[in-house]
Amino acid sequence: MSKNRKPDYGVDAPEFAAALGAAGVASLVAAARWRRGRVAAALTGAAFLASTACYLHTTLRGKFLIWERELDRAGLNGDEDLLDLGCGRGAVLIAAAKRLPKGHAVGVDLWTRDQSDNRPEATLANAEAAGVADRVEVHTADIAALPFPDASFDVVTSAMAIHNISSADQRYRALDEALRVLRPGGQLLIADPWIMTRKYAGHLGQGTPRSLGPGYWYGTPLLGTSLLHAVKS
């Protein structure tokens, strides 16, 4: 593999981003053709295109910068065993692995279409391109039924994955599984829509969700992301 290759993490929910952009273009086309309602259509189109730009910033740059900051805040020693739930193409998994020269980073996913070209081969190729292939592994697994023993990891992370589970019971099961595989004193860091992290904190009985700011908005503040940080007692 070329030493000049850079990791390619794709786009989150590309169909949604495409729909936002298409709605913006359609509204602007309508504004150009209509006499009545032209201003409203133009404003609507501009709003959709602004949301598209915000979305693309988050998925292509913003979330990476924020996770770099949050992983720094976690104060890793470099020898931890870390598990990333719903790892996708490895954005958080690989950022964490770079901080674990003596540790190990494990990603699990069901490789659905929530992210473009989502498959284990793409994740492993990104790990190799980032120079951390020796400390990264991936598994196909349901995050609500993890194939790991109790107390296997020092850190569990998850970025915009748990909310994709349709059943509330299964979402809470995924949280319980995350705590089960954590060692005492281990850290849980979950980034998800703010409305969901509030429910997670209530289920776990600990942690206060913290907004991650405009850099993690998927098009609008209503689709902003919060981080739930908890420590296993």
UniProtKB/TrEMBL annotation:
It holds the Pfam family Methyltransf_11. InterPro entries: Methyltransf_11, SAM-dependent_MTases_sf. The chain crosses the membrane at residues 41-60. GO terms for molecular function: S-adenosylmethionine-dependent methyltransferase activity. CDD domains: AdoMet_MTases. This is Class I SAM-dependent methyltransferase. Residues 83-190 form the Methyltransferase type domain. GO terms for biological process: methylation.
